Amino acid sequence: MSRNAVNYCVKCSGRINSDPLICGSGCGHVSHAKCSSLSEQQLKIIQVTPNISWRCDSCLHQASIKLELYLKQHEKRLEILEQSLASRKCGKLNESCKEPVMCPFLPSTIASRAVFVTAAFAILTIGLLVILATTTNLFSKTLNKSKLGDGDDSRQNIPINSTIDQDNIGGGLVLRFVPRAVWLAQPPLKQLPLSLPVPMVVVLPTNSENCSTQAQCVFRVRFLQTFDIESQQKDDITFNFLIGGDGNVYVGRGWDVVGAHVHGYNMASLGIAYIGSFRHQEPSAKQLTVTRLLLEHGVNHGKIASNYKLVGASTLEPTITEYNAELLYKSLANWTHWTIVP
């Protein structure tokens, strides 16, 4: 699916500019999130939980028709069985009975069929109850999972009085990486080693919708990688790192692999992308604070040269409109390493 593909909501027939809800039944229908009748929590679960997807009304209706048809067929078979039982005599001990009854003198074939149908119906009912209980439990665990136990943070032995739940929600006060395994990255097709330390760091926008929670940002990053690999025929997600509005740093290609952010400059630079479009909106304070921490970390660990240049992608390729992010570059213009000359 191209970023510029035109989709129309199956509910309101309005145009969907980005991030449509796609029917999981494969019918091709899409919908606005606001038109889906799902709560905000349910939408978040669909974004981050594998094998759970939205279904359009048409597919749900078809499923209900199939279920109703199956039940009618089952009732018809039971009716035929009852008529067959009623037409037979119950044996010498029950010659006067006119209503069909289950008795030991029924022919063995009919008795076996009756037992089989009853057992099959009971097993089907139990199976549906198990599926319902499992789904309800999954939703409950997802909604109530603790931030300290979701496996997304690399720090061990967190004290009880820790402020980890406020670190990035409250302002991006720590450098927190979200590794590839956590945002469920596809494996790269191939990798080229990057010569370190790099003398240049290139910043640019993703030109997607922004995000303010980890669930939203994970969805954006996964979508970007899928687009880069399947539509742009790239080896992996374009960027070395992505900074979300939640104040987290999402690991793209990482420190040691050549990116694909700006043609002609990839072999000697790191590409840091900001999730969002910044022509009319400034990056959040969290994103800027974490950017400083990320650059300091890179210098301290020998990944970035101490005299590095920080440059906007539009400076290197001014003719490419996708690199335009005036308010992003303006927010970095007074930083020590910022330069408009590559």
UniProtKB/TrEMBL annotation:
Sequence ranges assigned to domain Peptidoglycan recognition protein family in this UniProt record: 175-317
GO BP annotation list: innate immune response; peptidoglycan catabolic process
UniProt superkingdom: Eukaryota
Bilayer-crossing regions: 114-139
GO function terms (MF aspect): N-acetylmuramoyl-L-alanine amidase activity; zinc ion binding
CDD domains found in the cross-reference section: PGRP (cd06583)
Family, per entry: Belongs to the N-acetylmuramoyl-L-alanine amidase 2 family.
Entries under PANTHER family matching the protein: PEPTIDOGLYCAN RECOGNITION PROTEIN, PEPTIDOGLYCAN-RECOGNITION PROTEIN LC-RELATED
Name of the protein in question: Peptidoglycan-recognition protein LC isoform X6
